[in-house]
Amino acid sequence: MREIQNSPIGVFDSGVGGLTVLRELYQQLPQESILYFADTARLPYGNRSAKEILQFVREILAWMAQQKVKMVIMACNTSSALALEAVRQEFDFPILGVILPGAKAAVERGKRIGVISTPATAKSQAYRRAIQEIDPTAQVWQLGCPRFVPLIEQNRLWDVHTQEVAREYLVPLLAHDIDTLVYGCTHYRHLEAIIKTIIPSSVKLVDPATYVVQAAKKELELMGLSKTSLASPTRFAVSGSSAAFSHLSQQWLGYCPSVESVSLPIGFVSTFPREQVEVLE
Ligand code: DGL
Is the CB–ligand 1 distance for residue 186 below 6 Å? Predict the structure, then answer.
């Protein structure tokens, strides 16, 4: 038992979106060791089919199992919406998604709920279902925002163009007189500064990252899996360019992480970042 308590929590996303969940883990569960995987070779996930997402998620979880994680947090709404139910029973560690914790938090805050997400998450209706299962009287407007993830992954967070794109997405959503807005994609919190210039302060912002980590904390306690000693440094792995991920993520991490390359389905794991920094737009 002692050994499993010390095992890392696996966290994955298509890219840097899951760092918003990692930040919450650092705040709420500072003693836990984390293994973070970003499937950057195959992002964005949000325009892909359910079949592809399910296959990718299975591959990632198989790799995580090999790394001996004690729990996995899907720090990706698209994976949580399209694959969580199917894979939950296939692995012998608990797997948590962001949709249900996000939906619970949203219904506690409002009745007219906007959800911005990838097109795949919006199409799945996962948020509408989860929200209305808890509160059938809540109204939900889901909006797919396909341009956000590429802009974030290209580090165009502060571009005037990004501001215009955000306005294009959010102004029509505001016309529904929403009282709550859910970040239905983990990447979007990285645009919070821009989003807050468009959304009135009366609209409550819900970041499911906060609540999935609360749920993880409870689950670890319940299962007697909480780590009590100091955390090991976070281990980062990506399927694409390790140098590009390291370069992009340092603005949120506050340091330049060393990042492993992993080929999926499970192949070799190199601990040496090999690629040059990609030239980003
Ligand atoms: N950050 C992920 C999500 O929450 C995936 C975004 C993408 O790759 O399109 O859905």
Answer: yes
Catalytic residue check, 145: no
Q: Any catalytic annotation for residue 256?
A: no
Cis preceding linkage at 136, omega within 30: no
pLDDT score of 272 more than 90: no
Enumerate domains of the chain plus CATH numbers.
2-97+210-270 (3.40.50.1860), 99-208 (3.40.50.1860)
How many angstroms separate the CA atoms of 155 and 131, rounded? Answer: 32
The model's confidence at residue 277, banded by pLDDT at 50, 70 and 90, is very low
Expressed in angstroms and rounded, the spacing between residue 227 Cα and the centre of ligand 1 is 29
Nearest partner of 166 among 142, 186, 147, judged by Cα: 147
User: Does ligand 1 come within 6 angstroms of the Cβ of 20?
Assistant: no
What's the whole-number mean pLDDT along residues 118-122?
98
Per-residue pLDDT tens over the stretch 43-69: 999 999 999 999 999 999 999 999 999
Lowest mean pLDDT among 198-202, 223-227, 241-245, 267-271: 267-271
Q: Which helix (H) or strand (E) holds 258?
A: none
Q: Cβ(239) to ligand 1 under 6 A? A: no
Ligand 1: atom nearest CA of 17 is 1
Type of residue found at 112: R
Instruction: State the distance from the centre of ligand 1 to the C-alpha of 78, rounded, in angstroms.
Output: 6
d(CA 243, CA 149): 19
**Active-site hit among 165, 185, 243, 262:** 185
What's the pLDDT tens digit per position in 123-163? 999 999 999 999 999 999 999 999 999 999 999 999 999 99
Nearest to 148 by CA among 186, 198, 98: 186
pTM, two decimal places:
0.93
Q: Is 78 in the pocket of ligand 1 (CB under 6 A)?
A: yes
